[in-house]
């Protein structure tokens, strides 16, 4: 890289949790500077945010349209390199499309769009423009998730037979959307969130994680969604039976009414020769259970000797030596870092390495939208199985 | 109790794991003596077992029929008080029926019978004779499982909304039934095990645990069973969506091909006000997650102050003070101890306490058989839901 | 074994925790029957205990003297085979000595005697009579402790460099001996407990565990004992620097005022090539940390392939397959079982196997007393190091 | 804050682990920009590092002297605001002193200096100049460490009675300093590291953590240091008995030859009413063990209701909601953030809040040097106790 990349931001005003996460992730490696933004639909919040973020007043815009238009007219060595979109789901597609069409790369929150149609259109634009889009499926950024993926790919478990992925949260155990919780409000509003609540918000993370690590695709599913908290308008809980394209079976559980749980995403993959387990609350451990062997715990940052050596994908995404816990912000930072390294390589006329390219992209966004569609369809059906394309 | 109870045994020769477990459970509290048995269909093994178990040669019988007949002719203060049945599933019903009809109480392994019809008939006999039958759903014998049940019953979680129960094992990851593993052989043989493999063997434990702790009944289910290991004749894996009779949803997973897992039965129950989690590998901890509170870990044997005081059902089933781990044999021993205390109370003309009566009985055996029937029916159906009576 | 062994008991009335633990341990394998006892200095408690324990009234004795005298006059095939002594420390020596001199084997609680002189005398009697004495250092009975010992002996860690053994309890955080806690009362009374409180009661367990697993001997120590709770008469807490006879260093911590701890005995042994860790609260896991390798967790009851195969000493002391937790009562039971197998082998004119002989014996009792002496001496000295013989 | 602060750096070239940690910590909140540096004594490494770090070539200096001189001549709105010193221990004092005397604030690695004399002189300069010095005792930056401190301060444990702090690492189990490990080389070289190895490098962290959380001071100690690996010149292991200024006792263990351990810093504090435990490998959990209560696990980022509400010091140092693990880089970042907020407040003529001021400062650096002096003195003495001033 010859210079820092310049980031613009839609959404993420100082009152929004996720904007701050994106900024920390973008900042931590010193590869990105925030140069412009439209941080809120409330102009005062946007202005205040810009000040707190040390963004020049003349690069705070009233909305994403103005931002993209004006930035694209700035000199090439001044204007933003990429746009980060951290608005609610229903305002993902339009700024992403417009940014790409004006030549800007994009980082976008999941689920990628409001509908599958939008997702497919976005994919076409990305392919047409040759630009780069990163989708922040955060959990795929953890080093031990990458190690798990590498071990499956290296056939250390044999053929995969069963996958259990769970994402229990408890934060919507009450009707928090009526108690002034802004994040709860839009996530439970079908007009802003889309056709699913919990499945769209966190089920998509779980599905992505299962497919990412296993290298398999969900081919059929049978879903049971619930609106558990009375008065809510979208599913806050769901259980899904899965079948994968190699014949493996699985279960996906996503809940926001699992009272007392924080963010307990967990993945287990079982193959012919052994199983692996990873827990987001304890992200630097990967539990490897091979038949006829003691349980092994692989840990981030270690320089194990062969044949235990950590994958290059794990080590590329690790910043500090073993025993120094890395957390969610670093996992998030890995997505940004790989996105930035990829964009920079392209700008510099170089070919990104496989490790750089290892971040969720537009195809995974399309797949996530299809997953939501099929889950909702299955939930409404009295047939057992629904095929996933 | 005025005297030890006298136990007879069908099956459980010295080559069988489960017979030994029953004996340790029966012996540990000094309330039971083994007086007779038919330990194996192989007369030499039966004779050798008797010798190793210090059973008098004249009370070793060639089969359960001879045993029940001859024992019933012995003087009242000599003959066995109860018969323990630890044969494969297809030889549960006949000895149980005959024992009850000759006035002997019964301890029986799960699943209780080969078919639901047999189970219902057994229930009728138990009700008619007024005798006592204990079904060894081992895991309900753990003190912290009883604490969990008490906390749900005391409304500490509020209305139950979601239950996740899992029972992953990996010991059938290979075709072990062809490699001389006797336990694997009969369990995977439809003629000996019944219409289901994993679901009958361990799925029934999981279903029992979920119902026992929650006090709810499974009312509908949607099952996906698999024969994962090629060449096997019964399911070795299954995933089931559940609906309970109060509207709660749930998931039950039972697998014997979860490579690398030992016996990782886990239960999570989520209510309006919080959730609980219990893991069989770590049985002396009960994780209690109340909304807006730090996670609490209740542990066996503690004399907590109110309102944390452990339930009388937990303390009644605890032998030693906090910090001294109790394990599966003690949980198993609790079922025996409560069975023996109940039988003795009845013999002595006393009324057993609720704590004594807290062991799995014939009704739970009927319910387990119905669960297996419905799971198998659902698996074969293209409809989503099957009702459970 | 041709018959069950017959046990007599001094102490262990129905109001005493530890008597019950001994009986469960003795009973669980069906190798022992309780035939006589003097369960309490209170004749009514002794009589009631005998009744509850199904001991014949004519074999309940007013004290250990009467018991030993009368039992030794009974026919050989009736009288007790061994005497279990579960009285407070100051009544260990006399009954043990008298029992041995009348030809009875002995099981005795730790610390073995009140003074080192008594311990040495007992050792001489054991050696002279050829009888067997088992000292219940419970924690050495756990299978994973035996696995740890085997791994050190097999040089899997290389030369041992450092040992950390801790035994924190919190149950004496208050002046419980004044609040009617009988166990607390005698343990904190110098006339009944001996010259040390916490160090005698639990520090001896810790020291034994460190030496048992490492195969090393403590050669020097530097102790800092405290009476933390005002009004107490014996140490309730102590920290000790250790040096072992191979040059390794170490730390031993024993506390009964570590508020909130239950019985958290933990051992870590570090060698040139790796370390191991074992925790009594989690006794079926042995954490093995080899240089340049992922952490391995060895677990009780597994049939690992070579070179991971569990030691014969671990498997000999395991009753049930992997995934079925064994606890403190089984560890205790292992001491009894090995003692009984050893005594029976001798009675039958056979040679006990090394696995049978693997239980704490009189020499370890002498060593425990010397440890207490040296710790107390060091605590009173302003010199840094005190040598241990 | 009205603007980002400008950071200069001595040491921390691209080949050095710790420089990178400081930069990530400084960058993550978007409050700091790196403007100048002398990154290595090797000019080419320094130049290359500057390029990779996007530092302008005209602000890369040949050494700290040149940097401080030239920077101090730059306009006020251009020159660095503070200097980060990440060189080996023997080059801490001189640049720190010179920076302060030229008006620059300082961030410095621990141990603060090479000798206690230097430390005291630095303290005098800081006091005289009124400038701010941050000492990176990383572990005090974790939110749950701050929660622990708050709970002790709020008397939730009662009077503190016992403290156990351990810092086992295994990375110096071999003579790595002879195998090309640069970090090992200087740390084991008395000329570069100081009079102690393990105790200076990590024992100081442990001592700081114990004093920081408990609010107590170590008043006496008895140390046993070892050079375990043959051929090494400084202690690689040490065990220390402690006495605190309120009468509490304690143990401190620091080892770099605890083979198989990563960075397993652990603190336990026991008071009259309960104990707390914190483990650096698992930093978002704080285990709270109150007498007569179930174990409680406080976790980072939760909005618990009273009386469980997390301290303002914990929440001020948390970036993301519960269930999103924060790690070492965030803890490190908290030290930077508080330092920067304090410096900015002073620059803006405001008074820093207590939360802002909660980072290790020069007094703690002096105390750390005294600790090392006393430990080394005690190790060489045959007297049991050495007083700490």
UniProtKB/TrEMBL annotation, chains A, B, C, D:
Which ranges carry the GFO/IDH/MocA-like oxidoreductase domain? Answer: 145-277
Q: Which residues form the Gfo/Idh/MocA-like oxidoreductase N-terminal domain?
A: 5-136
Residue stretches spanning the membrane: none
Which Pfam families does this UniProt record tie to the protein? GFO_IDH_MocA, GFO_IDH_MocA_C3
Q: Which InterPro entries does the entry link to?
A: Gfo/Idh/MocA-like_OxRdtase_N, Gfo/Idh/MocA_oxidoreduct, GFO_IDH_MocA-like_dom, NAD(P)-bd_dom_sf
UniProt protein name:
Gfo/Idh/MocA family oxidoreductase
Q: Which organism is it from?
A: Albibacterium profundi
């Amino acid at each position: 890289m010859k210079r820092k990349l310049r980031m613009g931001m839609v959404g993420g005003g100082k009152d929004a949790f996720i904007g701050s996460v994106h900024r920390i992730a973008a900042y931590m490696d010193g590869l990105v500077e925030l140069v412009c933004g439209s941080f809120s639909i409330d102009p005062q919040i946007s202005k205040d945010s810009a000040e707190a973020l040390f963004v020049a007043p003349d690069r705070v815009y009233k909305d994403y349209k103005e931002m993209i238009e004006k930035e694209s007219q700035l000199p090439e060595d001044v204007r933003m390199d990429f746009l980060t979109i951290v608005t609610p789901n229903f305002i993902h597609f339009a700024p992403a499309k417009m940014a790409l069409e004006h030549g800007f790369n994009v980082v976008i929150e999941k689920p990628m769009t409001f509908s599958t149609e939008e997702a497919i259109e976005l994919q076409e634009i990305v392919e047409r423009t040759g630009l780069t889009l990163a989708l922040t499926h955060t959990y795929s950024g953890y080093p031990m998730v990458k190690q798990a993926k590498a071990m499956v790919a290296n056939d250390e478990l044999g053929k995969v037979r069963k996958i259990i992925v769970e994402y229990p949260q408890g934060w919507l155990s009450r009707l928090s959307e009526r108690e002034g919780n802004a994040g709860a409000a839009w996530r439970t509003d079908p007009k802003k969130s889309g056709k699913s609540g919990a499945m769209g918000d966190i089920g998509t993370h779980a599905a992505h994680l299962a497919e990412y690590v296993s290298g398999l695709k969900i081919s059929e599913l049978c879903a049971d969604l619930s609106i558990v908290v009375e008065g809510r308008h979208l599913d806050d809980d769901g259980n899904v039976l899965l079948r994968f394209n190699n014949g493996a079976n699985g279960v996906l559980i996503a809940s926001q009414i699992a009272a007392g749980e924080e963010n307990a995403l967990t993945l287990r993959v079982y193959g012919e020769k052994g199983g692996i387990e990873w827990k987001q609350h304890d992200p630097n451990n990967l539990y490897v259970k091979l038949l006829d062997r003691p349980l092994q715990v692989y840990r981030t940052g270690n320089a194990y000797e062969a044949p235990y050596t950590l994958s290059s994908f794990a080590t590329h995404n690790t910043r500090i030596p073993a025993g120094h816990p890395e957390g969610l912000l670093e996992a998030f930072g890995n997505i940004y870092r790989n996105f930035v390294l990829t964009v920079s390589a392209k700008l510099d006329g170089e070919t990104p390495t496989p490790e750089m390219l290892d971040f969720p992209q537009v195809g995974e966004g399309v797949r996530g939208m299809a997953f939501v569609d099929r889950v909702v369809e299955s939930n409404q059906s009295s047939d057992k199985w629904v095929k996933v394309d």
